[in-house]
Structures are given as structure tokens and as C-alpha cells.
Amino acid sequence: MNTQNKNGEVRIGFYICHCGMNIAGVVDCPSVAQYIAKLPGVVVSRDYKYMCSDPGQELIRQDIREHKLNRVVVASCSPSLHEHTFRNAVESGGLNPFYFQMVNIREHDSWVHTDRAQATAKARALARAAISRVRFHRALETTRAPINPDVLVVGGGISGIHAATTMANAGKKVFLVEREPSIGGQMAKFDKTFPTLDCAACILTPKMSAVRSHKNITLWTYSEVVKVEGYVGNYTVTVKRKPRYVNEDLCVGCLECIQACVFKEPKFADEFNMGLSKRKPIYIPFTQAVPPVVVIDPERCLQVRTGKCKKTCLEACADRQAIDFTQKEELVEIKVGNIIIATGFKLFDAKRIPQYGYGLYPNVITAIELERFVTSSGPTGGEIVMRDGHHPKSVGFILCVGSRDMKTNRWCSRTCCMHSMKLAQLVREHTDADVTVFYMDIRAPGKGYEEFYDKSLKEGIQFVRGRVAEVTDWAMAPEEEGKLVIRVEDTLAGFVRRVPVDMIVLATGMEPQADSQEVRRLFNMSCGSEGWFLEKHPKLAPVSTFTDGVFIAGCCQGPKDIPDSIAQAGAAAAEAMALIDKGYIEQEPNTAYIVEADCSGCKSCIPLCPYTAISLDDATQKAKINEALCKGCGTCVAACPSGSIRQNLFEDEEIFSEIEGVLSYV
Amino acid sequence: MSDPNWQPRIVAFFCNWCTYTAADLAGVSRIKYASNACVIRLMCSGRVDPQFILDALAKGADGVLIGGCHPGDCHYGEGNYKTMRRFQMLRRLLRDMGIEDQRVRLEWISASEGERVKTVINDMVEQVRALGPLNLPQHRAEWDGEMTSSTEPAGQPAEQEAAHA
Amino acid sequence: MKDALKYSYFPGCSLKGLGRSYEQSLLPVMRRLGVELVELDDWNCCGATAYMSVDEAQACVLAARNLAIAEKTGPRDLVTPCSACYLVLNKTKHNMADFPEINQTVQHALKSADLTYSGKVPVRHPLDVLINDVGLDVIKEKVVRPLKGLKVAPYYGCQIVRPYATFDDAWNPTTMDRLLTTLGAEVVPYPLKTKCCGGSLTGTVPEAGLRLTYILLKEAVRRGADVIATVCPLCQFNLDGYHDQIDRRWGPARIPTVYFTQLMGLAFGMTPEELGLKSNFVSMKPLPAESTTV
Questions:
Q1: CA C200, CA A209: separation in Å to the nearest integer?
Q2: Average pLDDT over every residue of A316-338
Q3: What is the DSSP letter of A541?
Q4: Taking a C-beta distance cutoff of 8 angstroms, is the pair C83, C160 a contact?
Q5: Three-state SS string across A336-350, please?
Q6: pLDDT value at residue A143
Q7: What are B13-46's pLDDT values in tens digits?
Q8: Per residue in B8-33, is it b (16+ CB within 10 Å) or e — as a string?
Q9: Residue where one domain finishes, among candidates C100, C124, C148
Q10: CB contact under 8 A, C171 and A354
Q11: Is A432 left (phi over 0), alpha (psi -120 to 50) or beta?
Q12: Cβ contact A112:B30 at 8 Å
């Protein structure tokens, strides 16, 4: 075979990595190296234990110098892990990094096949394909595009707040978009946080105020992202700002309008208090809301719905004139370089497990509802009461409701054991009731968490290991009359128990938000099989996504507690800032280009490009490509009837040679 | 030519963002499947030129598998829709050539569907195995031979150009 | 539209034996509603839960013979009132579709009787037919003597909603509740509506079986029901036939248990004698403000 191509004589260095036993345990690496050594153009062919290590990379650099290599092929793991590493090694050896090709014989071979002979044969075929291909590689340069230093954070819970303030403190301009009328997320509903029993509001509200007063943060609540265009460093985002019918700049949060509302009594379920109390059509989500501005519910307000109302609210606000019924929905366009998604979670609907009686028995409540009872600023002023107003004398906590369950959700929601124990302790503190926790396993992995479990035991909270079968209200014995009976197999004691209690608290699990599929499409992300946003790598890149410039943080990536959410938010902020501070992004040079001489101006390619990177040059009447816009998908390349569009790094001749290489090995 | 050692050979074109990543995930999860498919990595299934498929078959592949993102999820927005259209047209051509549907497949596999990589490859290998080798290179050699032998004077009966099964 | 209400009918052994008042009340009620039930020719025992526990493939052969006969008779749905028959026949259909080995065994056996099975005949419960095919409006029209003042605890038992919850919810079914309300009765909230009655354990392991029966009776009494309405002959038998033993072991919990079809019959103006209400151990009291001969 001809070892010359138009670039002169080809001198290929081939390296096959053992990866310890990961590859060598299944693939006969030395024999592959020996086989490749015999192929024309191959000057050096080695097998080595760990190619990605320093000595491994040094091997490449040395060989480039000593053997005057002008092509390098490494057969090891997936290019998604180390293509970059080896390209850098090649570059530091003095060779253009795009003369490098990687062969995946680990994720695609040694890890998925068991027959040694077959796996080795496949490794040979794949390696040979790369050898054939690499001779057609050309020297390429990465291009740089500027990065817009502004950042968008979507979601104003604890994760979004932390990410926004971190970046704002570093001098970056941040847009924080939140769809509820106030930031604070789920954490704003908690009374105390585990394991320190810190007051949640006390630690959250300072951060919320910081967001409001920070000169670098533009806070848009009651708003949603509706369109995202562009790519890393250059996103154009359209935000829909829903009308509050209240001017944010003028309202001071005095709440007189609420007092004056024509609805004398609150009538509508208060979302913040999980429906445990009522609100009027004009309301403020909660006292420490940020922004501290009222909002008018368009579906409940008489004026908005019918136009016929006395508008006593307007009168009450006569001097500030903050209420404005002429407000309309607004679409605003912003330009940012990076996006951090921190949209959080939703709770499992306990009605999906009818055996636990939620919705049927009034004294079966969920943990978040109990949080609202226990909070001193909640609907009962901190009193834990049953529906008839009495304090419970016995409370049962049922864990894993909608988690670790084949019929509903498979995953563990990670925080329920801890928050149930926290609530159990608070119940004991507030009411002195007997508390029993029904669990499958107690998960207390964080700092101070196991000690918190000990404290729960010391406080006399009973723990029964068993998955609750059902909650019933029919009594078998006098002490069960008028109570709710929990039927459970006590697996440690070895028999089925009936435990009568006054009140039952269900630890409902976390789920992805209802609109997570629409949201992920909006930002060009994927979801995992369970519905959480998909991270780039579960171990090494938990806050990045496959789309550069889009990061995820907090529970939208998977269930986690507050410390982990904040850690991820900080991590996402750091990743974004790393990009911004670098000042440019390097674009992989896999863009398409046009060989003008061959182009006939048929215009088949122009409508195909999703980035509108191809246009017709009026002067030459041939297609031309804007390299800055091209993202390298190759769709136009495959479509061009004359083959005049080519793709760097994925030339036709490169692919054809790979096909040949894969098949010519017999 | 029933070679008992014959193994189906499948060339797979996987898009980088979804299917290639799913195959990586299958690897990380140590999911085991048939070794008959070799993967060629492309950035998008939209890059798959029908010529690649025909070339692979012509060079001896018994089957070709194209893997891309689910419709609506293409990393580049719409590349996989183009693939779908091209595939439909190529399918007609392949049928006219007598190449069975099961030999050339288009599958949507998302980045988290490692298990699906196994089921698709295993299923395809078995189907192609049942169909037997395609062996286009050998047929082409035969057809070439027929061309040289049929450079005879005009007036030969038309039956000379026998139908190729 | 009336012509469409013609079904094949599989009574099962119980409805010809101990549970004959079920059939006695079902057939005339259906006739009044314009529903024709054509009894399957030469049907055999379905095997109930007993045979399924011994040999699943052979049990399917036994049950499938009836399905094959139903197929031969015509493209009509097969209605079966007994809960065990309903479950076994449906289970057989599922097994035939999901397990090729069972399918093979059954088809092979059926061939020797010149029968085939194609799975086209659906197996349906009378409640399903009444609510979905006949409709509550039509039923309401036929009510001449509303069951006003009668408090009924609707008891479905376990087999018609588990494991196949095709026409109603597995945990909280409401078809019979709605039917009883249409008849004018007051439906008592009864959370044990799908809790097991003890089944055949009442005979084999009475301490366990009878206890389950007792729980059902006690709760119905506690909730103020006058009568329990049931869909299954074994449930009816358990709830009706063991009061002496239950009295001795745990205490009295007397409440009559009848078939829902008997209540329908009463609402349609039929007499207790016609409906077989005389054969109960615990008699149902006469309906309030009505002088029916008891």
C-alpha cells in the first residue's frame, strides 16, 4: 500500500494501552501491536500499561522526536475521556494535535466482550481502521470565539441563589430567572435544617436579600425562559415576564392592598402553605418573599377575569400607585455566555399510593405539610395539630413513600431519612407525643448525620424496620378505636404489627419537575432514564452537560441535600467562571468548508443548516460557510451532490478508509 | 459456501453525542453484547452519507447500523431528521438491489440507553446471521467476470445476461 | 343497539351449586335490561384456584377448553359472574399470550378435541357489562322500587380487581358503589372492600380464614351497614355461613350478605323468593317501608 499521501511520506506511531487489566485482561495487546507494526506506514508500534500517565505521554513525545513521527494513533479508552489528553501530548511533542486519532478498545471492546479471541480480533480491526484513516489527517488549528461574560441562572432556589451570588461577587453580571413570584425555592418552606437544627429562614433570607441588593444581579421573578438560541459563549435567550399587575419598583410591600381586597376572607388555597391555609387573589407568597412585592393571581382576581371590580386595592395604594392592571406579558431578549440550570425538584404525589390513605384520612399528611405546621410563621403558628385541632399523642412517620419502589420510583431520595428524623425530633419537642419511624434503611451519610440519628434514638423516638403495608381506620382492639392503624411487618422482631397512631406523616420522595422534558429540550440537554438532567459524567463532571456552556446544579441533577446543592452550585459557578475568565472558547476544528471549484451553486445545502451558517455568495453564486457559526454536524457534507462541501476531521476519504480498515481485516 | 466459522460483520456509524455515548455507558456498566459490530464515530447521524452505507456493503459488511439521537433530541437540532429522510430513500434503493431490510438499520439510542445498545446490536447480529453472508465483494468479482466474458459479438441471446440472485 | 347486548355465559360450578341464588338473580335481572346471556354448551369446571396451584399448564388446558368453545360459538364476549372463574379464565388468556410453552401444550391438547384457541374472546365481569355496556341510565329506568333507606357495604373481594384491574381500580373500585347508588341505596364507606374474605382457608385453616371473615363482618356492622353486597359465591358463603363459629371465637357480628344482583332484583320489583334470598343463613330484613312477603 502506498505510504505516501499528498502530505508526503506518512510515519505513524501506534500505541495500545493495557489500562492495567481493563484492556489487557481481555485483549491481547502485544499481539495487536505486533500486527499493526507490519502495516505500511507504521514506524513505531508499542503496547504500554498506562498510556495516559506521564511516562506514557512521554513515550509519545519522545517517539515523535526520535522517529520523526507525523501521525499518532492510540488505542485505549473512549475519546470522550482522553482524546484531549493525547492531543495535548502530541502537540507538546512538536506535532500538530490533529494528526492524532484515538481508538476505543475499552468501553467498546474489552469491557463489553468476554471472548478473548473475538475481542482481540475486533481491536485489530478498529486499530487498522484508525491507521488507514490517520494517513488522511491534516494539520488543523482550533479557532477561538469570544465569550460573553454575562451568565443566566435559571431557578431561584438555594442552588440558583448560591450560584448567582458567587458569580456576582466575582464581578460577573448575572440574570436570575425564577418562575414563582419569589425566590427561595423549597428551602423557604422548611422550619429547621438538619443536622444542626438551624432555622432555615435565618440562613436563607440573608442570601435572598443579597440577591436582591446585589448590583450585578438582575432578578426576574414570575418569569420563564421560552427560547434559547446560540452556543457556548454566545447564547441569545428570550425570557417571558409574566404580569404581576403590580409595579415592582413602586411596591414597598406594605400589604395594605391585601387588607383592602374586595374578598373579605381569603378563599383560595395558599400554595406556599401546601393548601393548609388560604389566600386572597392579591397576595404575597410569604412574608420574607424576595422581591417583597405583592402579586395578583390572574385566574382568581375579579378585575383581571371580568373587568368588573371595585378595585379597592388601587385605592389602598393611592399614594404609591404600584398596582397596574394594564400590565402585559413581556418578552425580553438577553445575551449571555453561560447558563446554569438550577430548577430543583417536585415532590411525589402521595395519592399514588392509596394504601397509605393520603387524601382519604385527614390525619395522614406529608412531610412538607408537617414542615408548615411546625414553622412558627406557618398556618398554625407552629402548633402541630390534627384536623380537629387537638394535638396528636402519637405520630407515625412512614419513609420511602414513592422512593425505592418498583411500582413508583426506583431511586432513593436521599434526604427523607434525615428530614423525617428532624421532624420527629421537632414533634417530640413541640408535643411530647410518642413518635415511631417506620423505615427500610436509615441513610445518614453526611457530616454529623449519624450523630443526629443517635440523638433521635436518645430522645426516645422509636424505630420499626419494615415497609408499611397499609394505613387503615378499622379497629381490632379497644386501643385502636378512633385511631389510624399502621400495619407493618416488623422485620427485626419477626412478626406483623398493628400500630395505632393519631397522625401519620409520609416522607414523600423527590421527583424531576413535571416539565423537565420541555426544559431540557429548550437548553439542548439530555435527561437520564429516571428523568433527572443528565450530567456529562456521573463521577468526573457532575455539573456539566453535553452542551458546552450549559451547567446544572442542585436537585435538578438528582436528589440531594442542602450542603450538596450548594457545593454543586459553587462548582457550576466555578466552571462557568473558568470559561469566562479564559475569555474565549476554543472551537473544535471539525467545521465544514467548501471547495469553491466544485460547487455548482445548486443551493441544496443552504436550508439544511440549523445554525444558518451557509449562505449563497452573491458575487460568486456559490455557497459559502460562516465558520464561526458552523458547529460541525456534517449534515450539509452528506447532502452535497457534488461533494464540494467537506468536513475537517471527518473527510469522506477519512471515513471511507475507516470502513475499509474495519472490513479488510479477516 | 456455508462456512461454519462465518460471523456476521456489521459496520456501525454512531453519532458522538447520543449513541456513541450510550455505547460508552454500556462499557462503563460492563454490559456484554456481541462483538460483531465495529463502530465508526461521527459527530452527527446527519453526517452519514448513503455512500458510506453502500461502500461498507460493497467492501464486505453483512450489515450496517446507524445510530443517532431520538427525533427532537439531536445535539445539532435537526440532523437526525435528515438522516431519517435519506434512510427512507436509501431503503427503496436497497430493496431494488435485493438487499434485505434487516441488513441496514437506523436506530435512535439516547445517551442514557446503554442497555439498548446491547439489545439492538444483539438483535441485529442474530437477524443478519439468519440471513447469511451478503458477500458483495465476491458477487462483484463474479459480475466483473461476467462482463469480461460477455464481450462477444452482438446477436447473443439476451438470456446471457442472467439475473443475479 | 339492543341486539348488541348478547353474550356467551359461563356460569361455573358454584352458580349451579351452592351459589345458585347468584344465577337465580342474575339471569332475570339481565333479561329485564335486554341483555341476553347464552349459556356455553358443554362447559367444564374452570379449575378455580386449586388446580392453578397444582399444575399451571394443565389448569390452563382445562380453562382454555371453555374459551375455545366460546370462540366456536361466535364472536361474542364471554361473561362470567364467579370471581374465581373470572380470574382463572383471564389468567389463562394472559398465560396463553405470554408463555409459548403453555400455549403449545394447550393448543396441542385442544386439537385432540377438535378445538382451537385464538384469544379473540374477551372474558368480562357482569359489573363491567352493566356499567359500561348497559349503562347506569338504562338501569335507573328499570328501578321501580328504589332501595331508599337501605345501607349497603359494597364488598368486591380480591379476585375481580387483582391482579387484573381491567374495568375498575385495584385499590378502590367503585363500579358496584355507583350501581348501588343508582338503585337508590345508601352506600356505606367500606375501606375493606377488596380485603380477602379468607377464601378456602375458612375450611382448611379456620383460625386464619375465619378471622379474616370476622374482620369484614365486624367492620360492616360498625359502619352501620344493613347488608353486605358481594360479587363472589365463595365470599358470600364465607360471610354468610360461619356466624356460629365466629360468634364462639370472637363475638357476634351478624349482618346478612347478599349478591348485588339480588339487590338489583329487589329494586326492579322482584320478590325475595324469586331472587333466592330465602337460602341465606342470615336473612336480610325486609326493605324499609315496604310490605314484601318474607
A1: 68
A2: 95
A3: B
A4: yes
A5: ECEEEECCCEEECCH
A6: 85
A7: 999 999 999 999 999 999 999 999 999 999 999 9
A8: bbbbbbbbbbbbbbbbbbbbbeebeb
A9: C124
A10: yes
A11: left
A12: yes
Largest pairwise CA distance in chain C: 60
Please state, in angstroms and rounded to a whole number, the distance separating the CA atoms of residues A91 and A69. 12
Chains with ≥3 Cβ pairs under 8 A against C? A
Q: Are residues A490 and A530 in the same domain?
A: no
pTM for the predicted model, two decimal places: 0.83
A607 C-beta neighbours (distance < 10 Å), count: 10
The answer, yes or no, to whether B and C have at least 3 beta-carbon pairs within 8 Å is no
Domain boundary among A85, A112, A142: A142
Residues C66 and C156 in one domain: no
Parallel, antiparallel or unpaired: strands A282-283 and A71-76:
unpaired
Could you tell me the CATH number of the domain that includes residue A622?
A: 3.30.70.20
Residues A186 and A213 in one domain: yes
Alpha-helical (H) ranges within C223-291 are 233-241, 243-249, 260-267
The one-letter amino acid at A336: V
Give the residue numbers spanning the domain of C199: 136-279
- A531, A549, A569: which is closest to A230 by C-alpha? A549
CB A78 to CB B46 under 8 A?
A: no
Q: Smallest CA–CA separation between A375 and chain B, in Å?
A: 41
Contacts of B38 in chain A (CB under 8 A): 122, 125-126, 129, 662
Q: How confident is the model at residue A539 (pLDDT cuts 50, 70, 90)?
A: confident
Specify the number of domains making up chain C.
Answer: 2
Collapsing DSSP to helix, strand or coil, A212 comes out as helix
Domain boundary among C124, C156, C187: C124
CATH code, C47: 1.20.1050.140
Q: Are residue C271 and residue C140 in the same domain, yes or no?
A: yes
Our measurement of the distance from residue A452's CA atom to the centroid of its chain's CA atoms, rounded to an integer in Å, reads 29
Domain that holds residue A78: 4-142
Q: Is residue A393 part of a domain?
A: yes
CA angle A218/A221/A227 to nearest 5° reads: 85
Only one residue has cell 443517532, namely B68
Q: Is B98 exposed, middle or buried, given 0-12, 13-18 or 19+ CB atoms closer than 10 A?
A: exposed
Q: Comparing C-alpha atoms, which of A160, A203, A166, A202 is closest to residue A179?
A: A160
pLDDT bucket at A1, cuts 50 / 70 / 90: very low
List the single best residue of B24, B108, B117 to mutate versus A (max A Cβ within 10 A): B24
Asked if residue A383 and residue A434 are part of one domain, the reply reads yes
Quick one: cell of B21? Answer: 455515548
Of A142, A172, A205, the residue that ends a domain is A142
Predicted ipTM of the assembly? 0.88
Tell whether C198 is covered by a domain. yes
What tens digit of pLDDT does each residue of C118-143 get?
Answer: 999 999 999 999 999 999 999 999 99
